Amino acid sequence: MEENKFFRYIWRINGLILLVAGVMAIGVLAFAGYQIYAKTTRDRNTRNIVNIQEDSELKEEWRLGYMADIQGTSYVMVPLNSDQSYAQSYYSKSSSSARNYLFINSKNNEQHWLLKSNKYLIADMTMLSEHGYGGEERNIRAILYQVIKKDTDKDSRLTNKDLKTISISRSDGRGYKELIQGVDVFVGQRTVDENTLLIVYQKQGVGYSANVSLSKLAISNEQELPKVSL
Q1: Residue 168 β-bridge partners
Q2: Which helix (H) or strand (E) holds 208?
Q3: What is the pTM of this model?
Q4: How many other C-beta atoms are found inside a 10 Å radius of the C-beta of residue 117?
Q5: d(Cα 201, Cα 182) in Å, to the nearest integer?
Q6: pLDDT digits (tens, 9 = 90+) for 51-87
Q7: Distance between CA 145 and CA 217 in Å, rounded?
Q8: Could you read off the pLDDT of 80-91 as tens digits, one per residue?
Q9: Where are the beta strands (DSSP E) in 88-150?
Q10: Per residue in 182-210, pLDDT tens?
């Protein structure tokens, strides 16, 4: 008799343990299901992607971005961003991309746009200072841009995967010039002195380096990088 009571007690404990384990398992599955649902239905935010495919479900809004001071000048620059959203069956995508820059003279409120059109993607912008990034003062001499003008990989989007046009302007946004077209990869740049910039890039699979005059806004001394023997 005592033995039967003991076994019934053990069964009750086991049943309680199974009940708790079952509740925990249901909780874990519910949490995992919620995480999967949240990941598949949330907004997927991206940058530097401009959808150029004609689609009635594509929505585009234009917004001004954050204002940036151009040190050593009386000018500020403000990006014009396009916010594109596209609803899929179970999630939505959105992308914010710089399409132009507005330059404003803070002294007299004179204003002008960098580009005459907003149809391109400005994938990158770098202010070039006289003393480089290590100097105490950063008087900006010019501004370098990476612009995507064409959908060269034919995916109906302007992205960093497309060929780039390396362009430059003066610090006030005037004198905009295209330096190099058809760039595969822009490796980087370095300010050599107050008037000279070194840039390194790859075009049609070949590496190059060149100098850029910050006063003339012109490229010179372009040289192919030496090849390494296999």
Answers
A1: 144, 177
A2: strand 206-213
A3: 0.75
A4: 9
A5: 10
A6: 877 765 677 889 999 999 999 999 999 999 988 776 5
A7: 12
A8: 998 877 655 444
A9: 92-105, 111-113, 121-129, 140-148
A10: 999 999 999 998 899 999 999 999 999 99
**Order of strands, sheet of 218-224, starting from the edge strand that comes earlier in the sequence:** 185-193, 196-203, 206-213, 218-224
User: How far, in Å, are 151, 159, 162, 186 from residue 154 at the CA level?
Assistant: 5, 11, 9, 20
pLDDT for res 44: 54
Q: Rounded CA gap, 148 and 82, in Å?
A: 14
| Burial label, 162 (beta-carbon count in 10 A; 0-12, 13-18, 19+) | buried
> Torsions phi, psi of 10, nearest 5?
-65, -45
3 state SS for 24-92: HHHHHHHHHHHHHHHHHHCEEEEECCEECCCCCCEEEEEEECCCEECCCCCEEEEEEEEEEEEECCCCE
- The residue assigned the tokens 């610090």 is 171
> How far apart (Å, rounded) are the C-alpha atoms in residues 101 and 51?
20
